[in-house]
Every structure is written in C-alpha cells, then in structure tokens.
C-alpha cells in the first residue's frame, strides 16, 4: 500500500502537475481542485491508486478526488510537495508582466462563458423545487380534463371553487416566477437577494398593472403594445408574470448599481441608503428599459425556435432529444427551460418539452437496462445507483442521478442512449407533440402532453430502444466490463476488499492519534465478535432514504461505506451513541465519529455545502472530544442553506463497513434516537471483508 506522500505525488502528477492547480481545498472526504486546464487530468491513472476512492469532475475547471476520512492528511502532504508550497495551492491564475491574467486551456480563455451558464444554472436550480411541485398539480388538473371532470383551460369564472383553488396553487409559482428568479439571480451575483426580488415584484403590483387603464396603443418591436407617459417619458407596458429574462437582466443591473453605490456611500449608512437608491434606480430602469428588452430577447429566441418548428416540427422533434445528452452535462440546457416558460406565456403551449421527453426516457431506459445487467451479474453497487436513478427519473423526471451516476462514467452509454433519443424524437415529430404546461417529463406528467397517446408512444419507444440495447450489448467497453467482472468474481471468492475501502475507514482514526475501539481492532484482525446489538440510532430528524437516492455518484455507489441518507426536518446533528469525535470540519458540514461499539460513522450535512465556508453552520464539538449519546454536534440553518441552492440530503455512512458482516438501513420518517442502521458484526473467526 502506497504511503500518504507517494499518493500525494501520484495525485499531483496526474491532476496535471503543480502548475495546473489554481486552487485546492478539502471537505470531509474529498480534495477539491480548481485547475487551469482540466484536459490535463489523467482520470484512469488517478483512480489506479487504491487510496483514491473515485474522481468527480465539477463544472468547467473543478475536479474532486475522493479520499475518504483521511483527506486532511493527503491535503497537507500535497501542500508540502515542490511547486505546491503552503499557500501556493490557493493561488489564482498566473499574472503576466503587463498585469493580464493567463489561464491555461481552451475553457480558461472563455471563462465568462462558463460563468454565464453557471449563473443560469445556479439561478434556476433553487426554483426547480417549486416548479416540480407545481408541475404535478398541473398534471392533476390536466388529468381531470382528460377524463372529463373539468376543462383545464376554461375561464376562471366558469371553474368550480375547488378547481380555482388548485389553479391558484400552480399559478402562484409561475405568476410570481420573476420574483423568485430575481432573488436567486441576485444572490448568485452577490447582490442583495431581497432587493433583487423587489424589483420584478414592482412590475406585478396592481398599481403597475393599473397603468394599462390610461395607456394608448403603439407599435413596439414589430408588434402592438400599450404605452403610457410617465414624467414625460414613454413607458411600454408588458405582462411580466411568468417572465424570466427581465428579472435576470434586472439582477445583473442591480449588481453593478450596488457595487457603485457601496463605493460612494459610507459603510455606516449603507444598510439604509444602498437599498433605497438601488430600488429608486433599478425599478424605473427595469420598467422603462431592461424589462421590455428582456421580453424582446425571450420573444426573439422563442420566435426563432417557433419558426424552425413551423418549418418542420418533425426535424425539431429529432434535433432536441439528440442535443440534450450533450447540453445537460455542460449546463447549457437552462436557457431552454426559460424558453419553455416563455412559450407557454406567449403561445399557450410549448413545443420543446415533448421532444425533450424522448431524451429523458431514453436515459431512464438505459438505466433500467443497467439495473437488469447489474442484477444478472450480482453487481450490488451498480444496482443501487441504477435503482435510485430510475426512481428519480420515472417518478420525478430528474435525469441528473442517472446522468452523473452512470451515463458519464462508461464508454458505451452514448451509443445506447442516442438511438433511443432518435427513435423517440421521430415518434414525437410524427405526432407533433406539444406541452400544455411546464412539467417535468416523468410517468406522472404524461397527461400534460398533447396528444397524450402520441407522447406516450414516443417515450415508450425511446425507453425500450435504449433499454434493449443495454440488455443485449451491455453499457461498458470490453475493458470496463472485464475489470468489473473480475472484481465481482474476487469478492464472491471472499477475497480481501480493495485497499481503498480500508483506507476510507482507517485514515480518520489515524488522524486522531488514538488506538481504535476494541471492536474495530478485532474486526481488523478478522476475529470480531457480535458486539452490536442495536445498531446505530438516527443522529438527525428527517426522512431516511437509501444512499442510492443521493444525487452524488460517490455516496450513491457507497464508495465511502454503506448507510442511509436523511432528508432533514431537524436542524441539529446529535451523537447517536457514546464515542469520540474523529474529525469535525471547520465549515461545520461534516463530522466523523468513532463509536464505542466499533462503528466509525460519517455524517455529511448536505452536498457540496463545504463551499459555504461555514455560513449557516455552527460547530458544537471539537476533534478528539469525548461525546455521549444525545450530545449536540452540529447545528445548521436549513432555510439559509437551501436558499443558496444546496441540497440538504445528509448521508450517514459507516466508513469501516468492510469490517462488518452487513450494514442495513431503515427507511421512512425518523426522530433523533430512533433506529437508523443495523450493523451486524462478524462471527468469531469469520474473516473481515
């Protein structure tokens, strides 16, 4: 087994060398690199070291290397290497003599493009929760229309009171969408999110809408519009409900206005006068200029796609699902979400979502095929990933777990995916499928498409085309398949588990400088006794779900150990049993424990929450501290963390899983102290895995 120093050298070499590292931090289990040129990374070589549990590309130039509980050791070792002196790992891009900054790689030359799509992605991601809920309410109403209970598009005054209330439920999200977008966009840019929300909100007030009563008709951007004189200036009136481009432009304008105001207003009174002048400047600017321009931009893109659709709906229906598998990994699909909403607001229907469903269901069909292959070859880890991805896809229309857990990991997946996209797109084009509302394309939202039968046939064709291609021809290259089957064969013969798993379990204990608990010592020698009678209780209140549902390939594949995840309803993490704190992150997002019963536990609050740098978290214990069951370890603010766009799902994993016979998790609602994990110790003399 390589030393920490050797592994550190191995990582730096295969990450592209010390000069390729522009920033390096770490969280509870991962080294987090920012690179000058991500194309220099040798992924296969990186993962060949048994101490490296996996790698995860992140964004354009981000790269995560998963090391397990001993990540701090590797981080410190990397910082001591030549060329990566302390502090050098946090350096920025090279500054030339003329003051210009030099970025390596093609992506580096166009960093503003990367940030633009990151801006769109991080703006829409927090809102998707509300959009998903609203889409299912829409589906219920469309289904009621389909079976003849109540017409979906009937005027509100003709709708029964109960249906009016249900329409209010989904319209609340779409009507006030500009306010939500204004808040999340401003927050992403670093401006005040509530001022960002207030600007588009002003354009949705009864007072602003009431201006139409005294408006006159005029021509604007080739169409008919309403105009009113305000202080002698012409103001074009628009319906800003459901719009996304005006609040995006307003948030960008707010960022620059706030930045300028903070330079000239004394800090002692900024809290009062910065928002005052920001509103005073940005609301009129948005009403007179940015709002109409934003609507023009949205209408222009929508009209272009409408023209393509008018020329040949069949061609557009094939192009869209073939593009999505390449757009989604890069985050380039977010502008199309905005156009879908724009189409519904202006046309009353959308022509993108139907063909997009072909891509989604081709992806889900591929994952279903992976599940069948995994069951057939007894591949437990991949079976878990496929099950979680398939459930999230078919029931929620969410493709990310499937995409990052499977599609982007194996060579042959696109050869199985694209034929399904093409075949489903052909069917969508034949039936000219359109969406009656913005919905996530899942099994539950099929009734929202028109014609429903044509759409159902299209997604079925996409699903089963990719499904059968995987079942018949596999989803991996020959080398990948041979390596996996060799590993599975070794495990079935009771061969020792890879050293990487042992590394994830043991390095955190080495950090503490103390000997492991007696049960852990016994397990490491292969003679553990049955010391676990009741397992591990829940450290956090919430809903327990399988690890496979965690939208992170490392946790979902149980590479850090078996366990469960908790979708929290509580705000404090407690010690589930007596033990010692092995490690606790300064950022407060994760804590590692060595329990007296021999279990080493990692509790990781949220995904990528290390990036908050401690905001929203309070650490209540310190490393090496002795704790008893029920002691508070970490408290956190879920509303703040969610508002920043982070997923709060909390993996609770046994990092020394290999030392036990099995780790089984409970599911459903749990309170602190209730049973969460059943950890079965090995019998006397039984070798550890």
Automatic annotation (TrEMBL):
Gene3D superfamilies: Glucose Permease (Domain IIA) (2.70.70.10), Glucose permease domain IIB (3.30.1360.60)
Compositional bias per record (Low complexity), positions renumbered to this chain: 497-520
Keyword Transferase listed: yes
Record-annotated PTS EIIB type-1 domain positions: 5-88
Any one cellular-component term (Gene Ontology): plasma membrane
Active site: residue positions: 27 (phosphocysteine intermediate)
Xref: Pfam families: PTS_EIIA_1, PTS_EIIB, PTS_EIIC
Domain PTS EIIC type-1: start-end pairs: 118-487
Compartments reported by the entry: Cell membrane
Entry keyword Secreted: no
Keywords carried by this UniProt record: Cell membrane, Kinase, Membrane, Phosphotransferase system, Sugar transport, Transferase, Transmembrane, Transmembrane helix, Transport
Protein's GO biological process: phosphoenolpyruvate-dependent sugar phosphotransferase system
PTS EIIA type-1 domain residues: 552-656
Membrane topology: Multi-pass membrane protein
Principal location: membrane
Spans traversing the lipid bilayer: 127-147, 168-186, 240-257, 269-290, 310-327, 358-375, 414-433, 453-475
Coiled coil spans: none
Annotated NCBIfam families: PTBA
Protein name: PTS glucose transporter subunit IIA
